[in-house]
Write the structure tokens for this entry.
Amino acid sequence: MAGILNKIPQKQKGVLCIISSAFCFAFMGAFVRLAGDLPSVQKSFFRNLVAFIFAAVILIRQKGSFLPHSKSNIGALLIRSVCGTIGILCNFYAVDHLALSDASMLNKMSPFFVIVFSALFLRERTNLVQTLGVIVAFAGSLLIIKPSFANLALVPSLLGFLGGMGAGAAYTAVRWLGIRGEKGPYIVFFFSGFSCLVTLPFLLFDFHVMTWQQWLVLLGAGLAAAGGQFSITAAYKFAPAKEISVYDYSQIIFSALLGFIMFSQLPDIWSLLGYVIICGIGVAMFIYNNRRDKNP
Amino acid sequence: MKTAAQVFIIIGMVCGFWMILPLIFGGIALSQMSKGQRPSTGMSVCVLLFCNMIGGILLLCAKDEDFYKPNMMNNGYNPNMNNGYNPNMNNGYNPNMNNSYNPNMNNGYNPNMNNGYDPNMNNGYNPNANNGYNNANYAAPNNYNNNNFNNNNNNGVQQ
């Protein structure tokens, strides 16, 4: 088996890893939905607890430090954790109240928010194509949110969009931390620990008793999330982000499939149009960035 | 691995023919494979997502060599390759051509060419030396009348 894996080209390994991470995250969403009528905070706690245990085990195995690389990174670590926690809570709320694929798609707005936040806070320059791409993607997201009072799912949709924004802010902070030498496992460890601590009081004072099926499903959500996290880390180890990031959009297809199979959900025509626009812009920007790197 | 991928792709195409997308992506991937080309990474991912997951994974995992046809590989001899002799090639003699002597034409003898004799060279007999005469590329014209060329010319071969 190891022999076969060694023969696969690095890029192909990266693609397989990023698709398996998309598969895992789609399953995480499905498990979160399957957990039923539990508060999003409770679901988020168990999801992060599993990630925290995994990250701690990795840090111990790698003999890494449980302290940040530099004291100056603590602020960015806190920003990453706060934004990440808000992102997860909003995403879980959206998963509970929207079609699985709609919630995933709104969460996949995060790369566009990364462009906006990187320009605002990291002073990274954006060109006209990127700006237009972000505008069109936001327009596409409006087709999913359907901002009208007739839309009963307006609040979950807006929260799903906010979840994408939170994830985008968190990734911008991760980028800043990466530049300053903070290691990936430590960022996951800090974020998961922070998220568990923040949600713990809510869990203690408003704990909903869970059946053994719900325990099992939430454990599955945590494992799927951990699997997705490790797969995506491995993917970016095998191949550069600019070559494989576009395949992350496969999560929408997996989510749509799981939503249909497990919950009989079918996105409406406007949502489908929104998916096509956002994924299309994502793919177009991927191709544009690759061409620009080849012919600077 | 290629054959297994093909089998799974065909299964995906048969099972999902009513959705059209499996037919499109499976068909493109199969036609590329039949031509001895490796489907691109994007195409393999599309097969994985829209046609057959196992087939797509096998396409991504397969080695480049799996996709080349055996007869497309150069094993030293390739009947389609020019192996030095080609009966359809113009070997210097064309019965439809004016085979009379033309002093302006290069009739095989070029005084500036090294005809095998070089006073500074070892002019001894060398059976391995190229003596200017090559069966593959030379056919004696019927009414060859080149006075500049004769068998007494020292071509480096003791005749």
Remarks:
- Residues 13-289 of chain A form one domain.
- Chain A touches chain B at residues 4, 7-9, 11-12, 15-16, 19, 247, 250, 253 (CB under 8 Å).
- The two ends of chain A are 41 Å apart (CA to CA).
- Chain A has a mean pLDDT of 87.
